[in-house]
Amino acid sequence: MLKLDFHPAGRHFLQIPGPSPVPDRILRAMSLPTIDHRGPEFGALGLQVLSGIQKIFKTTQPVVIYPASGTGAWEAALTNTLSPGDTVLMYETGHFATLWKKMAEALGLKPEFIGLPGIEGWRRGVQADAIEARLRADTGHVIKAVCVVHNETSTGVTSNIAAVRKAIDAAGHPALLLVDTISGLAAADYRHDEWGVDVTVSGSQKGLMLPPGISFNAVSKKAIEASKTAKLPRAFWGWTEIIEMNKTGYWPYTPNTNLLYGLNEALDMILEEGLDNVFARHDRLSAACRLAVQAWGLEVQCADPTVYSPILTGVMTPEGFDADAIRKIIYERFNMSLGTGLGKMKGRMFRIGHLGEANDLSLMATLAGCEMGLKIAGVKLAGSGVGAAMDFLAEQKIPPLKIAA
Amino acid sequence: MLKLDFHPAGRHFLQIPGPSPVPDRILRAMSLPTIDHRGPEFGALGLQVLSGIQKIFKTTQPVVIYPASGTGAWEAALTNTLSPGDTVLMYETGHFATLWKKMAEALGLKPEFIGLPGIEGWRRGVQADAIEARLRADTGHVIKAVCVVHNETSTGVTSNIAAVRKAIDAAGHPALLLVDTISGLAAADYRHDEWGVDVTVSGSQKGLMLPPGISFNAVSKKAIEASKTAKLPRAFWGWTEIIEMNKTGYWPYTPNTNLLYGLNEALDMILEEGLDNVFARHDRLSAACRLAVQAWGLEVQCADPTVYSPILTGVMTPEGFDADAIRKIIYERFNMSLGTGLGKMKGRMFRIGHLGEANDLSLMATLAGCEMGLKIAGVKLAGSGVGAAMDFLAEQKIPPLKIAA
Amino acid sequence: MLKLDFHPAGRHFLQIPGPSPVPDRILRAMSLPTIDHRGPEFGALGLQVLSGIQKIFKTTQPVVIYPASGTGAWEAALTNTLSPGDTVLMYETGHFATLWKKMAEALGLKPEFIGLPGIEGWRRGVQADAIEARLRADTGHVIKAVCVVHNETSTGVTSNIAAVRKAIDAAGHPALLLVDTISGLAAADYRHDEWGVDVTVSGSQKGLMLPPGISFNAVSKKAIEASKTAKLPRAFWGWTEIIEMNKTGYWPYTPNTNLLYGLNEALDMILEEGLDNVFARHDRLSAACRLAVQAWGLEVQCADPTVYSPILTGVMTPEGFDADAIRKIIYERFNMSLGTGLGKMKGRMFRIGHLGEANDLSLMATLAGCEMGLKIAGVKLAGSGVGAAMDFLAEQKIPPLKIAA
Amino acid sequence: MLKLDFHPAGRHFLQIPGPSPVPDRILRAMSLPTIDHRGPEFGALGLQVLSGIQKIFKTTQPVVIYPASGTGAWEAALTNTLSPGDTVLMYETGHFATLWKKMAEALGLKPEFIGLPGIEGWRRGVQADAIEARLRADTGHVIKAVCVVHNETSTGVTSNIAAVRKAIDAAGHPALLLVDTISGLAAADYRHDEWGVDVTVSGSQKGLMLPPGISFNAVSKKAIEASKTAKLPRAFWGWTEIIEMNKTGYWPYTPNTNLLYGLNEALDMILEEGLDNVFARHDRLSAACRLAVQAWGLEVQCADPTVYSPILTGVMTPEGFDADAIRKIIYERFNMSLGTGLGKMKGRMFRIGHLGEANDLSLMATLAGCEMGLKIAGVKLAGSGVGAAMDFLAEQKIPPLKIAA
């Protein structure tokens, strides 16, 4: 049989924008013995994770947990709220927004896909005014939902969701607001209730630091109301029965127990650190990363500084350099995985993940690997990104490490 | 936070018919570091598990692996092959057959639910002749699929799937054959190709000894053909793109890597022991268990000896005894979980799981816990089931333990 | 390389009297990352385990923790308190008492070895009156220490240490009292302070449920005083520097960090259950085990009911049956390890461990494996030991399992 | 109870010169179930680790494995070969050489301690000619053994053992050669047989990447011969019985099974990578580290380039800067542990470990943490050590990462 211990001496640096490195604590929690999902302890576990995850979404409304990957939670958001042939307004921020739109088509919806032209749209966030304009024009309220991606994993752009909410309200339009923050949750600030989101979609393998296999729908009262008349067929993804059984901490079908152990531990870690501290850490690391890219004389994929992603940084490679060839050098020489350019950006950029289980020194290792790899690949760098990042990080005032004892 | 180490001194005996106890080897494998699901090692892992799982299903055709619970694989089997309003012939063998039928309704299909009346149908297997008769009557071929459960987890009955195939053929009917062997796979003999099954649905948390979170569709050429015209909306569950990407060992969306590590280890364990030895072990343990039940003077739920389940044994409790009260005594006094009676059998039976990570002595512990618990509950037993089981097991000729060295 | 996953499907039953099965909780704790043994967190860990272990020994005096096996702690007890050529009175209770005596000789001490003749001495506990008589005769106080084994692992006899203390006091003799409770600690009641023991020797792999590799000396003021003039050379085992550095939670040389994590978890588990509950559990399991042996018509090795061991039961095999051949059958057929007969008892008995991570059902599995194995070996049994044990256990009133939530 | 998950978000960097970071693979191996140390599988495990460890020491002679820390193996080397009052020639290379000398005194030996004066001796290796001169003068052969440290963990100096052997031979002196390579083994080249070492002492928690708790004596025929007449009392440490029982893969007393699992895995990892590749990796990382120190304008503790340690680098801090205050900043701000200055070097230097589970990027993280910490502490650096290390590493030609598949 194949040996799964793939990597050689020294730790592998998994610096893709998710799955992010899973902390040992979470892997250990996941190795607790599987228990009876109908037994008395399970209810206690269920109630605890359901309550904890609400804090992460900043909601007091139900969060549905699926024993499935994030793509499934996209589907759940659509099938629970919409009917065959419904028009949905979707905004193209990048590859994942595009995939979500394709899914909507496959499910028999009519997505209207708007956005800035060419790769320009992949370098900026959602333009809320464009949404507002389109909704104002939709006087017949044909559009049933507005779908946007909060943190676009393919580009490193974190759109302003509050602005989208404001746009919908300004247009006086009744469309639901569905938001994908699969890669944003627990890394970038997110406020399901305050921002008036109807369905928030998320997953486990990014800011929550879990392996893939759990996904979420946080839902509003309006979304639940919509689900009562929505006609897309659904069973596995149906909210009603899940939300009902969740009241006692159980699920209508077999939940993935061991990943829930991991989720429980992740919630413990994140709430212990404090959500604000988690966000500040991601902000600091992403700022240092962008300074490095700029010092190298390369371009950050995100062209609008107000929507830089705290989770990942897209790095555009100069003309004549295949980004994937550079990634291969870095992988084979420095045992580090970086994200590839997706869709329109294939070969033109690579993505550095700095999310979840990440700190100043893991970022420095990452940047050093990039800098050396770029040099080996023959890219002429304007200066040392590593040096720039160190200058910045050494200046930051952060409280000293608190020992647990 | 809640402490997850729920159980007191000494090992908990998880003797429900799934999730079954997860072997340490598999928990350890699941704690390997999460890797890039687009990186070079992942493809090697993917190809290996895809090839290994075919051996378990006894098929050379594609097996689709979902990062989702078994209920999802039920949905996948239906949505990939059928269109809204299609009639499906479903056979009531117990609670799970009933749930699958409800799902078919929820998805907009028209299930026709046949079976023996009352609890009688829950004590016997699928009556292939009834299926044949129904199909013969369907001269217009309105019925698009026949759906049966191989090992009915709610009753402990393992139906004869070859006979169902034969019935369909005898009727000369073109309906697809969809089979749920969620709890049967890798514990009871199963032959996807030889039995001419079109879609076999299974899951991870039973004979495969994994935690819940992975599920399967083994598919036939005919099923794939059907999927090209089937009109139920689908995206997450769609076979086409998955089967295409699987050719190189990858998946179109994020697979649940760490559970795949576990699957890889499970395949290694099962193929190392040998499928025939695995089946023989389950046969031996289930035979011993039934002898114990008979020695106690209680009734086995399955009333037809030709379809006894090797995976679990349903035990009917005498009049006047609530099966769940007995289960509670056993749980609180002996730290053992048994399966509850489901649906029509609520309170009238309990279920003993003897599947997956099980051997003679773990069964003896289980039976001793049941026997003592029944006595404490005040049930008058005809004799010692534990003694009967020991008499049987001590007689069995099995090869001595082979040391790995 | 050799595959370490030695055992086939289903759990191996490790029923030797130590190393006992290590609970998953402890294995998980041991997998925490190794930290700087001079860093700030280490001191917190050190102080906690040092304080916890005192509760287990029931002492307020220092407990020295060695990063070494139990045999080393035997040596430490002797070298810290005695000088070359010193006479020590040692009592033969079995194989381990004999090994300790050999060690004393190897270290240049003069052990005087007393006890009942033949195997009779291996079937009864320490005869305190014989010790008293010998000490009264030693008017010149040539004897510097009395060495006894509390729980003799080779026989299943737990001697009365309070009686030995009383004997020494009655004789008005200044000898130190050194006690080995390597296999007794945290399973049988033990009171270092109340019983006036000067050095108690113990280890990790028995009642503490850890893997081997940690051992202990609990020491009295009198023992520390003796160490100031004791002349046996010592360095690694020397108490003084260790006790001094332990004040801040550190050790003079590298402690075995990951086993200390395990110790911390073990202390947590044991103190959570409550020492008295732990002892009661061992008493119950050992009583059930002896009833089984008696029902089989076999003899328990321990011939004195007042000193039955709660940790293990020695089972004497009938004339004409090689105990090791029976053990081999049980190992190869039922995947269970039992303890061999040691020294004088080689081939004449086997030992059943029922200690540490043990409960009613794990004992029942064990007894069932013994009963079936004895039958397969051709031993004529008077009756069912399994039945006798079940009758006894089902009668016991113990509080219901408390769910952690 | 105290929570053992001490560290906050992101991985802790344990960059002390041992215990070194334990790879996940080894932690997982250590969590295999403890087995009967007298059972059939154990012998297979024992034979395998005993054979594997010989390859690491480059010897065909016995390697004694102790279930104890490295300090114990120091004691074993002395007590097995020497008699009370024996004179031993010991060479002062640093703090650990000094501790070994103190141990010799405590055991009743007469160490003669030679070396260069002041801290000069702590900045250079063993001067073989001084040893030769001393031995030539010892015409009466009063000196029974020469004791030297191969890799002095307190300074970062790796002495030339072949030269010491040559010196002894040149002097025609019969003294035994005892060498401590506790921190050198499996990181710096070491040749027990070729260099004619009589006893090599080592431990688990450095190049072998295990937690502390296992230690070694590799022994020569001459050493075994000496042990027959050596009169220091010994029992736990005695070679004879261990070597005898090792022939079948067992030990006379309880070995620490779970650490042996870890050792088995470590041997697998190291031999798979290839010892020469392991050494080359350590050489590369240490060279990069020294270039960084020099670029900072700081002094490497080791003043002789021919004996730089591949395992650790001692960094001397400028006048007016307390090295421990700098370490504290780095610990609290960057979650990285560095080694303190020991003995004569207290406060004047810190030690960077780059051994075992280490690669280019983990070194870069380490150096970045040092560079930023030094700046925060106010040390004026001549230039960027991180930049210098990157320049060097990017130039190295090493084969691309080999994927296991």
UniProtKB/TrEMBL annotation, chains A, B, C, D:
Essential cofactor(s): pyridoxal 5'-phosphate
Molecular function as annotated in GO: transaminase activity
InterPro entries in the cross-refs: Aminotrans_V_dom, PyrdxlP-dep_Trfase, PyrdxlP-dep_Trfase_major, PyrdxlP-dep_Trfase_small, SP_NH2Trfase/AEP_transaminase
Domain Aminotransferase class V: 48-295
Keywords from the named record: Aminotransferase, Pyridoxal phosphate, Transferase
SUPFAM superfamilies xrefs: PLP-dependent transferases
Gene3D superfamilies per record: Aspartate Aminotransferase, domain 1, Type I PLP-dependent aspartate aminotransferase-like (Major domain)
Stored PANTHER family: ALANINE--GLYOXYLATE AMINOTRANSFERASE, AMINOTRANSFERASE CLASS V
Similarity section: Belongs to the class-V pyridoxal-phosphate-dependent aminotransferase family.
Protein's name according to its UniProt entry: Pyridoxal-phosphate-dependent aminotransferase family protein
Biological source species: Herminiimonas glaciei
